[in-house]
Write a structure and sequence with these properties.
With 513 residues, the chain is α+β, with helices and mostly antiparallel strands. The chain has 16 helices and 16 strands. It starts with a helix and ends with a strand.
Length: 513
């Protein structure tokens, strides 16, 4: 076993050299760190095959199995395995300052795309971006009246086992790092309830004279899924400065979309305590949709405005003059902040508690200029909708009950892993291989879908082929998610909703074209 560990270390070191993670004297340092980690006195002395791996996954799995046998971590708890993996790759990582220097030099000499290409590749080669796990995700697109909507069943984050949950409950309250976005995460060893980050790197940015940082998401939901976060740990905000920061980022990285989650609960993201944006090199379904009504702001001649054919209410501001597009977005945002229209359940404040905010999304196209999509949001609740009036309603919770954040707003559904097995079982019902009343049986895992399954059986019958059943189930999941997005829309895409939308835009200074 000891000789095998030393041999596998040499294979990983060769991988690191081929990928440019380490070179020269770095190899010796990395070797010694890994020997210490695996409690070995000397390296492997034999020949190592000249192998070409795209990712380090196979090499890491071999080393992790050996480490588990040596009881270097508790292999019954997946978190400890993942954390030990980061510790292994940490030995091959360049220093954070070296990464930042290389990124800055590339951006200056070859442009921002060359810089992000380098950084993204580094995060893949180091296994910070968990490519093998991401490949397990199930993805498809569904045509709707709004255009195609993309569906992902997210399998990258394994569900916690009872032992892990029990250990997490025993953990004392920790304040370091303050959150998963803070700069303190780089190189952090992790714990049972916080991921290890020895293979994590960030690069500094200057946005509007402020210190910000760029990193990639380890579980990318789309190509080059990045996170842009403030150097200071401060709560999410939504104001003119927020939009200016987004515009500055896109002006520096015009090949990336950039948007912000809303800053209020229910309609916001999962981390409201640290100001951040999300971006990436990806064309989202929302960006492909058409306009239903066109507007203008008479004093902003270079800006075209439109209401989009989209389930989540959205105003598009478009033009090559960044200042004018920014100004149009700010006027819409500021008007919405205090907008009330009880005929469509919009109330901006309850006493001093605000309910209205926006989800802004910006991208750049060479022929069109800056394209800012402003999505009005409202987080009010009532007795009928205690989770949120403009939140997925209860009858849709069997598909999606979590907040509708930035990524979902843009038409990319991130659905829970449970749907993989559940949708497969529903297909079996539609093929006639399982009883149609399976979901009505005591303790059935499909109980949450019982009414939906009844609908599917009535619509499609129970004698489909496997291919037909999968096609039907995937289509119906997509249509359900479209309804989820419709719930989040403050102005519904009907005569009443569009009339209310028009009243709001008139108040913001917009006129129909």
């Amino acid at each position: 076993m000891i000789a095998t560990a030393a041999y596998e270390i040499e294979r990983l070191l060769l991988f690191g050299q081929k990928k440019g993670l380490i070179e020269g004297l770095d190899v010796i340092v990395a070797r010694n760190q890994l020997l210490d980690l695996f409690r070995l006195d000397a390296p492997y002395k034999g020949e190592v095959p000249n192998e070409d791996f795209e990712y380090p996954t196979q090499l890491l799995e071999s080393l992790l199995d050996i480490a588990a046998e040596q009881k270097l971590f508790d292999n019954e708890i997946n978190t400890f395995r993942v954390n030990f993996e980061a510790r292994i790759m940490g030995a091959l990582m360049p220093r954070a300052s070296e990464v930042a220097k290389t990124f800055a030099q590339l951006q200056k000499n070859e442009g921002s795309q060359a810089a992000t290409d380098y950084f993204y590749k580094l995060c893949i080669d180091s296994n910070y971006i968990r490519t093998a796990q991401i490949a397990k995700n199930i993805k498809w697109a569904v045509p709707t009246s709004y255009g195609d909507i993309e569906i992902t069943i997210n399998l990258t984050k394994p569900e916690k086992d009872p032992k892990t949950i029990a250990l997490e409950k025993l953990q004392p309250q920790a304040g370091y790092p303050k959150c998963m976005l803070c700069t303190d995460n780089i190189g952090y060893a992790g714990r049972i309830n916080f991921p290890a980050r020895q293979n994590h790197r960030i690069v500094p940015l200057n946005l509007c004279g402020e210190e910000w940082y760029l990193q990639y998401s380890p579980y990318v939901y789309y190509n080059e899924h990045c996170i842009i976060f403030c150097g200071e740990h401060k709560p999410m905000e939504m104001n003119r400065q927020t939009l200016k920061l987004i515009f500055d980022f896109v002006s520096q990285f015009p090949h990336y979309t950039c948007g912000s989650n809303a800053n209020l609960p229910i309609v916001g993201g999962s981390i409201l305590s640290h100001t951040h944006f999300q971006g990436g090199r990806y064309v989202f379904p929302m960006q492909k949709t058409s306009a239903v009504v066109e507007y203008s702001m008479p004093d902003l001649k270079d800006v075209a405005l439109s209401v989009l054919n989209w389930p989540v209410s959205a105003v598009r501001c478009q033009g090559k003059n960044a200042e004018q597009v920014l100004e149009a977005g700010c006027r819409i945002m500021n008007t919405w902040e205090t907008w009330n229209d009880e005929s469509v359940d919009i109330i901006s404040h309850t006493s001093d508690t605000p309910h209205n905010t926006i989800t802004p999304i910006l991208h750049y196209e060479e022929d069109k200029g800056y394209i800012l999509d402003v999505v009005p949001r409202n987080n009010r609740t009532n007795d009928q909708y205690p989770d949120g009036i403009f939140h997925p309603h209860k009858e849709l919770h069997h598909i999606k009950k979590e907040n509708i954040g930035l990524i979902e707003v843009m038409g990319l559904a991130i659905l829970p892993a449970r749907l993989k097995q559940q949708s497969a079982e529903i297909c079996e019902i539609l093929c006639g291989n399982m009883p149609a009343d399976t979901a009505r049986q005591p303790e059935s895992s499909l109980a949450v879908h019982a009414d939906w399954i009844d609908h599917l059986c009535k619509t499609y019958g129970t004698s489909l082929s496997a291919e037909q059943a999968q096609e039907c189930v995937r289509k119906e999941i997509g249509l359900k998610f479209a309804k989820v997005l419709e719930c989040a829309g403050v102005f519904k895409m009907n005569e009443t909703g569009l009339a209310a939308f028009d009243r709001f835009l008139n108040a913001a200074g917009c006129k129909k074209v």
